[in-house]
Specification:
This protein has 530 residues and is of the alpha+beta class. Helices cover 51% and strands 7% of the residues. A 4-stranded antiparallel beta sheet has the order 2-1-3-4, with helices on one face. It is globular. It starts with a helix and ends in an 11-residue tail after the last helix.
């Protein structure tokens, strides 16, 4: 009930603040013109990263000749629902109209162009609506490549940002005051994101409760960066204090986003500082930057006036309340209140689930439930694809590894910084290392493409060990990786040992491989004559 009461506070405080705005009280502690400016610029940056990442990878991932072709996915979806209108409702995406490779790239280019416009300072409701619709279209056909919590989080954040903007005025500082109720809705989003992440940890892995989670996290996280090893070898007491800081940001701070100004400002700063720490310690796509966006709603114009250039602060001085924007904000707040019932029930449940959209009520994913790292791996596994030109695929053959863009392969290679860009094959192979190829069947399609030196598939890797001709065989080996001690004589970043074969050696002539690909529709049936 306490959580439901928070929604009631949104309406109460927003109504009080709306009355004060109408009275035109020029108190920068109660205005959010600079806050809106910063939120939209940072959200524009996130959209740039998201669309750029899609532009670089979407065709080899889900294009007509991709690892998981969009056409086959839409065909299955269409046959599952009883009508085209039902399919459109449950999987709203522009790609029902056209899903060619040209259409995929056109959506990405359009999204990237509009994102740059927002980043440069120009935004209004139509621009933000188009951005939201384009990225939602990608999410809904992205399949496993877009199954991460920050995808639906961007959908919700992007939709909420529409109500911060005037209808047509696209200047960096429009003459319309941002609706206070929408600012409160951003705080409600920050509350759910942070508290959901904190509760899933307390209810999940025991290493969070005994404060040892960071003994493992920096080494076993999906994609470490160059500072991850430094964090990993910090004194154990410091790592335990890091877990306590995690709880401060995710369990304690969220409750103050609805409180008095001092507590709210501290909460916003703590949550932002926590995300900045995560940015320095790993490659979590654009997730941490995106999570900062709603946390910024805790900070008012008086706060920003002390940080931003004086000329910028002066430009934001003149604004008038907008009846239309306030009315739209209140209507949307009513929708959010209804759609928040299930996420609130989920937060209160001992069987809490994370990163989930209750699509039967919310197919456009504008109110979701969130969480991150409910469990922490104790060891880092890594699946590495390897090829050989030898006549026989013996263990003693000359097996050459395919380097990933960011996952560790070469023991001497320093971990790279790729975030906010997300190499999506790398992420899926991190998950796949904890499972089998049967649970990730696209890996067999990937092997087939590597056996043909397919340019699209190779673009997902960091290099091609067979530049002049395809290898005769491809296999995948499961390794255990762990950080080498800094300053070791070999200058290594990693140590590793072989654990097992993850995929046996396969060739173009392997009948079982062909049969598997035909069954999934990735190769034409021999009976078709194609």
């Amino acid at each position: 009930m306490a959580l439901l009461a928070c929604l009631g506070q949104i309406g109460l405080h927003a109504w009080v603040n709306l009355g004060e705005t109408s009275a035109r009280v020029p108190d920068p502690r109660r205005t959010y013109r600079l806050t809106r400016f910063v939120i939209l610029r940072l959200l524009g940056f996130v959209y740039v990263a998201a669309f750029y990442s899609a532009l670089r990878q979407i065709v080899p991932l889900i294009g007509a000749n991709g690892l998981l072709p969009i056409g086959a996915f839409l065909d299955r979806a269409h046959s599952y629902y009883v009508s085209s209108s039902a399919a459109w409702y449950f999987i709203p995406t522009i790609f029902w109209i056209n899903h060619s490779d040209v259409a995929l790239l056109a959506v990405c280019w359009c999204g990237l162009a509009l994102s740059c416009l927002v980043l440069a300072g120009f935004a209004n409701a139509p621009i933000m609506t188009v951005l939201w619709a384009l990225y939602l279209s990608i999410i809904h056909v992205g399949q496993v490549w877009y199954g991460y919590g920050w995808e639906i989080q961007l959908s919700e954040t992007g939709f909420l940002a529409i109500f911060l903007c005037p209808l047509l005025d696209w200047r960096p500082f429009p003459r319309c005051e941002p609706p206070t109720v929408v600012i409160w809705l951003f705080r409600w989003l920050a509350f759910r994101i942070m508290l959901g992440s904190g509760l899933i940890k307390l209810r999940g892995d025991s290493v969070w409760r005994d404060l040892t989670a960071l003994y493992y996290h920096f080494e076993t996280q999906p994609i470490p960066n160059a500072l991850s090893r430094w964090y990993h070898f910090l004194p154990r007491i410091v790592l335990k204090l890091g877990v306590l800081f995690n709880y401060l940001a995710e369990i304690v701070a969220p409750w103050f986003v609805f409180g008095p100004r001092v507590g709210r400002l501290i909460a916003g700063v703590v949550m932002t500082a926590f995300q900045l720490t995560l940015i320095t310690s790993g490659n979590l796509s654009f997730f941490n930057i995106l999570t900062i966006v709603p946390a910024l709603a805790c900070l008012d114009d008086a706060f920003w006036a002390k940080l931003l250039p004086r000329s910028l602060v002066q430009r934001a001085a003149a604004a008038e309340p907008s009846f239309g924007m306030n009315a739209a904000g209140w209507l949307f707040a009513c929708v959010v209140a209804v759609l928040s019932i299930k996420p609130v029930e989920n937060l209160m449940s001992s069987n809490q689930i994370m990163n989930y959209s209750f699509t039967e009520f919310d197919p456009i994913e504008i109110v979701n439930t969130y969480g991150a790292f409910g469990s922490v791996g104790r060891e880092r596994m890594n699946v590495i694809f390897e090829g050989t030109d030898d006549d026989l695929p013996l263990p003693s053959a000359d097996w050459k590894p395919y380097p990933y863009l960011a996952l560790p392969v070469d023991l001497n290679r320093r971990p790279v910084q790729v975030a906010p860009y997300q190499p999506r094959l790398d992420w899926q192979m991190w998950f796949a290392s904890m499972a089998t190829y049967r649970q990730y069947p696209f890996t067999l399609n990937l092997v087939w493409k590597l056996l043909h030196n397919d340019p699209g598939a190779l673009s997902l890797f960091g290099g091609n060990p067979f530049p002049s001709h395809p290898p005769r065989y491809i296999r995948a080996t499961l390794y255990h990786y762990w950080f080498a001690q800094p300053g070791n004589p070999q200058g290594r970043w990693w140590n590793r040992e072989v654990l097992d074969s993850w995929l046996p050696p396969l060739s173009i002539d392997d009948p079982q491989l062909r049969q598997f690909l035909v069954a999934y529709g990735w190769l034409p049936s021999p009976a078709s004559g194609k």
